[in-house]
Amino acid sequence: MGYAQLVIGPAGSGKSTYCSSLYQHCETVGRTIHMVNLDPAAEHFSYPVSTDIRELISLDDVMEELGMGPNGGLIYCMEYPGYLDDDYLVFDCPGQIELFTHVPVPRNFVEHLKRKNFNVCAVYLLDSQFVSDVTKYISGCMASLSAMIQLELPHINILSKMDLVSNKKDVEEYLNPEAQVLLSQLNRQMVPKFGKLNKSLAELVDDYSMVNFIPLDLRKESSIQYVLSHIDNCIQYGEDADVKLWREGSVGMATVLPGGGQRARGLVVNYLLLKHANSIM
Ligand SMILES: Nc1nc2c(ncn2[C@@H]2O[C@H](COP(=O)(O)OP(=O)(O)OP(=O)(O)O)[C@@H](O)[C@H]2O)c(=O)[nH]1
Ligand SMILES: [Mg+2]
């Protein structure tokens, strides 16, 4: 069983920076993750790229051959390095969010990952600055929802760049948005003829009751760990270690379990973090 995060979100939402911080965090706690660049337009990275789509296709190639090119390129990124069963991959995706909502390529790629026995989770980043304007926020929610529907993956929304938010209270109501609050804010900002549309949008967010965000402040190691623990839970990372771990009846055994040591360690950290979430946030 392999594990994978597909890091998606609008252009500039902080995907590559998140990948880089995640890599550093995992290095610090002694966890191995492999970073895969899926952005053919990316120029430089602050994390070691384990596989790079640019080795196979340049942006020009993609533009020339749109159709087959990207699909083949994505599959190559999976197959070429010969990742092992137990590997944890993080895919840094391009910011063209339409790719995940309009084109079947990412969906095919996800199917391929699943066939290869990977537990995959979509990690959608939204810039906290979007929250200052409810219309931008709603459009970010809609993009997230359509990616959710298109990819049919376990999905985690993250509000990135929390260091830029001076008053945390301002964003709190956007983490678990209430349809009524959104609706009244939208109506206040827009002319009355949009009333019906606003109502439908607010109801959509409410119906799915899936649009909620975990705040991420990259200055805080605990914040990165908290986000990672949610994602790990989502893709069941460490669950087989879980059984062994609790059967042994001792958290201390985790590090000496053959093979499962690293995951078991991650699990213990997850467990403690989720238990003490309130004091961390
Ligand atoms: N203050 C602050 N700036 C950030 C943070 N994360 C990213 N940025 C900045 O936001 C800009 C975009 O960040 P990237 O990580 O390149 O965003 P991206 O989503 O990978 O962008 P694309 O790949 O172009 O879609 C850069 O100038 C980063 O320095 C953060 O947590 N806090
Ligand atoms: Mg990027």
From TrEMBL:
Domain of life: Eukaryota
Function, as annotated: Small GTPase required for proper nuclear import of RNA polymerase II and III (RNAPII and RNAPIII). May act at an RNAP assembly step prior to nuclear import.
Pfam family, one: ATP_bind_1
Name of the protein described by the UniProt record: GPN-loop GTPase 3
SUPFAM superfamilies given in the database record: P-loop containing nucleoside triphosphate hydrolases
InterPro entries the UniProt entry points to: Gpn (IPR004130), Gpn3 (IPR030228), P-loop_NTPase (IPR027417)
Molecular function, one GO term: GTP binding
Gene3D superfamilies: P-loop containing nucleotide triphosphate hydrolases
Similarity comment: Belongs to the GPN-loop GTPase family.
Entry-linked CDD domains: GPN3
Signal peptide annotation: none
Transmembrane segments: none
Keywords: GTP-binding, Hydrolase, Nucleotide-binding
